[in-house]
Write a structure and sequence with these properties.
Layout lengths: L15 H7 L24 H24 L9 H12 L4 H10 L7 H17 L4 E12 L6 H11 L2 E5 L4 H14 L15 E14 L10 E6 L5 E18 L3 E8 L4 E8 L5 H6 L3 H9 L2 E11 L1 E8 L1 H9 L19 E14 L3 E14 L12 E7 L4 E8 L18
Parallel strand pairs: 1-2
Antiparallel strand pairs: 1-3, 3-11, 4-5, 5-6, 5-8, 6-7, 9-10, 10-11, 12-13
Helix pairs in contact: 2-3, 2-5, 2-10, 4-10, 5-6
Length: 432
Amino acid sequence: MVMSVRLPSRLPLRCVLLAALLGVPACSDASAPSPGPITQLPRDLSAVERSVISASNAFGLDLMGRVSGEDPRLNVVLSPISASMALGMTLNGASSTTFDAMRSALGFGSLTQDQINDSYRELIDLLTDLDPAVRFDIANAIWANENVPFHAAFFEAVSAAFDARAESRDFGDPATVVAINDWVQENTGGLIDSIVDSLDPSLVMLLVNAIYLDAAWTVQFDPEDTYGAVFAREDGSSVPVDMMSRSDAQVPFASTSEYVAVELPYGGAAFSMVIVVPTLGVTVRNFLLGLDAPAWQALVSGLAERELGQVGLPKFTLTYDGFLNDALKAMGMEVAFAPGADFTRMSPIGDELCISFVRQKTFIEVDERGTRAAAVTGVGVGVTSAPPSFVADRPFFFAIRERLSGTLLFTGVVGDPTAEDPGPETFTTDCG
C-alpha cells in the first residue's frame, strides 16, 4: 500500500502532545460551521432519573471492562444503553431473588420496578428528541413463543415503559427468524442485519433493543486534510490508517499522568465522542480495569475547553458480535441464567424459565462527516426443563460397533461432510 503524507506549512508547539500520542505528524485547518449549541436539557431530571442514568453508566463501564478483559479480539464495541434496556425489559418478568440480582447488577439499588420503568420511559423520550441535528432512534420489541402462556400484565408493563412492540409467533417457523431479523435491519438503518441465526426449540421469548445513531461532527474534518499515517498496535506492530486531521481546534481536552483525552461534539453539542489515549506503556484494557463510574466522572469533569494545534483521529469502521452471559454472571446476575431462576411475573411457568443468552451486535463508522452507529441486544429466555438437543453441526468423531460383543467396526473423524477424498499421497518405497 502506498501512502502519501501532505506536510503542513507550520507545526505549532501546542500540537505536539496529541500528535505524538495519536501518531499524527501534521496540522491542518478545520472547516464547516457549527450549529447553535444545546447548553441545557429541556427539563430538569428528577432524582430517580439521575440515579437510573448513573446506574446505567456504572453498569456500562463495568460491562465494558469485563468483556474487553476476557475477549481476545483487538476491537470491542459495546452499547451500554442497549444492553441495559434489553435487560430492563426482562427485569419486568423477574421475581424474588432473581429480580434482586438483576436489579443489583444493573445498578438500580433499591429502586422499585415502577421507578425504573418510569425513568426508562422518560430517558427514551429525552434522548431521541434532544438534538434536531442528530438522529438517535431507540426501538424495543418482544417476540413470544405462541405455544407458551405469558401474563398480559408483563406485556402491558413493558409496552408502556419501553414502547415495545409485542408479538406472538411460531418459533418453529423459519419465517419468525426472518421477521425478527427484518425488524433488526429496519431499526438499525440497515447497519446490522440480524440478531438470531435460528430459534432453539427451548427458547420461549426473545426481547430485543435496537438503537441507531447518525450524527455529523459540530465541526467536520476536511477530507483534504486526511492523510496516510501509521497506527501503532500494543504488540509493537503497526498498520497504515487514514488519519483525519483538524488544526487549531477549540475542544474540551484533559491531560493527566494516566491519559490524554479530547471530546469531539456532534450537532448542537448535546452528543459527543470522548477519545482517551492511555499513557505510553499502559494498555487500553488495563486502563479500563480502573475506569469505574467515579473515575469516569472525574475524567469528563476534567475536560476543559482548550485550543489544540491539532486533533488527529483515524477513520474506522468496526463491527462486534458477542455473548454477554459470562460478564453478566460475574456482575451478580448468575441466578437469572440458571435453573431456579424466577420469572413468574413473566409467565405462569416462570419458575421453569431462565435467561439462555444475551447477545449484542454493534456497528460503528467514523469518518470526516461524523459517525453512524447501531447496536442490537437480544435477551433469549428459555425453558430449563426442556429436553436436551443434539445437532452435529461441527467436527465430530463416530464409531460403528457391534453392541453385544463390543467390537468396533468403523471409526471416523468428520471435519467437513461435503469434502471429497483426494486419494492417497504418493510415496517412495525403500523395498528395492
